[in-house]
Amino acid sequence: MMARAGLNAERLTAAAAELADEIGFANVTVSELARRFGVKDASLYSHIRNLQDLRTRVALYALRDLADRLTDATAGKAGKDALAAFGGAYRAFMVRHPGRYAASQTPLDPEAVAGSEAVQRVFRTTYALVTAYGLREPDATDAVRLLRSTFQGFAGIEAAGQFGHPRPAGESWNKIIDALDCALRHWQVSP
């Protein structure tokens, strides 16, 4: 049955990421994944070690996906154009892939992070965005935290359908990008 299903770690990881988007990352289990393939749980253990291994693989898969989207969106752009493209890619990823986004926010073993090119690309792309505004440490970290908090908060509320006002969310989003651009251009630099 394993050969017929064509199971391997990559296929299981991709399927678990899809499953996370459908049922929530916290609800992904080895049993749920095995059901998706019509196999017994034991069939998966020759490809993954355990549930934690599967969740780490999904988190790294999600981070690769996010890194690709952020770097593609910002390539060749600077300033407000880069900020809008970055924010748009972040927002779209979070809204369209809530399970993957949740996985990407999971604390990972430092060894997994150190060996992940995707994690480093997310960091590099994010910090490049704020350093292009002339920000250096510790201001760059503060600015990254501002952007991440804003994007995550907005997209989380949007994904939950909790904007209970007739004004289109996209119009508010554009105002937020304008405000963030202004804040980054006029940042009070730390001494």
UniProtKB/TrEMBL annotation:
This is Transcriptional regulator, TetR family. One of its GO terms (molecular function) is DNA-binding transcription factor activity. Residues 6-66 form the HTH tetR-type domain. InterPro entries: Homeodomain-like_sf, HTH-type_TetR-like_transc_reg, HTH_TetR, MT1864/Rv1816-like_C, Tet_transcr_reg_TetR-rel_C_sf. The lineage of its organism: Bacteria, Bacillati, Actinomycetota, Actinomycetes, Streptosporangiales. PANTHER family: HTH-TYPE TRANSCRIPTIONAL REGULATOR RUTR, TRANSCRIPTIONAL REGULATORY PROTEIN. Pfam families: TetR_C_33, TetR_N. It comes from the Bacteria. Residues 29-48 bind DNA. The keyword Transcription regulation applies.
